[in-house]
Amino acid sequence: MKLVTSFAITGQVQGVELPKYLQIGHQGSRVRVKLAKHLRPLLLQVQVGQWIHLGGQQEIKLEGQEKIIRYKATDLMLLQADQPPAQPQPAQIIQICTKGSCRKQGSLDLLAALSQSCPAGVEVVPSGCLKNCKAGPNVALGSRQIVSRATPERVWQCLQS
Fold first, then answer.
1. What is the mean pLDDT of residues 132-142?
2. Is the pLDDT of residue 80 over 80?
3. Helix, strand, or coil here: 156?
4. Is this prediction's pTM over 0.85?
5. SS3 letters for 18-82?
6. Least confident piece of the model among 94-98, 106-110, 134-138, 157-161
7. Which of 67, 46, 44, 51 is nearest to 128 (CA)?
8. Predicted confidence (pLDDT) at residue 142 exceeds the cutoff of 90
9. Over 60: is that where the pLDDT of 89 sits?
10. Cβ–Cβ < 8 Å for 94, 56
11. Are the C-beta atoms of 9 and 71 separated by less than 8 Å?
C-alpha cells in the first residue's frame, strides 16, 4: 500500500549527493531527500552543516513489516542561522493506529483523509497499537482521548468538543 502526503523538514545538511539528493539531519536521524528538477542548481550553493528547510511530498510505502519513506522536495529555503530555528509545536497531535486490525479496517485511508484535510496547528501521524483492536480504526487525540471506529467526521467532531 502506498500513501502520499506533504512534508516539511528543517534540519542540518549532512551531505550532498550530486546531481539530485540531499542528506538532512532531522530529529536525530539522517533523511535522504530528492530535489525537484527546478531546485537542483541550488545544490551547488548548499554547504554541509548549513541549516535548511525543505517542503514537498512524501511517499510512504508499506512492504510487509517494513515502512519505506521517500521524500521529494519542491520547496527549499536556505537558513542563515548557526542554530536551528525554533520549531512551532502543533496545538494538537492526532495519532492513528496503522497496525494489524486497524489497518484491515481502513486506518491507512483514514490517515490519508485526515492528513489532507488537516487544519493549521494539527499534526496527523501514524502510530503503533492503541488497544481496543476489534473496534478499529482507533485514533488518539493528544493524550486524553481515544476514538474507536473512527471516521474523519467523528475525529473532527471530537476535536471541536
1. 87
2. no
3. helix
4. no
5. CCCEEEEEECCEEEEEEECHHHHHHHHCCCCCCEEEEEEEEEEEEECCEEEEEEEEEEEEECCCC
6. 157-161
7. 67
8. no
9. no
10. no
11. yes
Buried b / exposed e across 53-73, counting CB within 10 Å, b at 16+? bbebebebeeeeeeeeeebbb
Q: How many residues are listed for the chain in this entry?
A: 161
CA distances from 154 to 37, 51, 125, 131, 143 (A): 40, 39, 17, 18, 17
The helix/strand/coil state of 124 is: strand
Going by C-beta distance under 8 Å and a sequence separation of 6 or more, which residues neighbour residue 12? 24, 25, 49, 50, 51, 52, 84
Residues 34-54, mean pLDDT to the nearest whole number: 89
Which residue is associated with the grid cell 528543517? Answer: 10
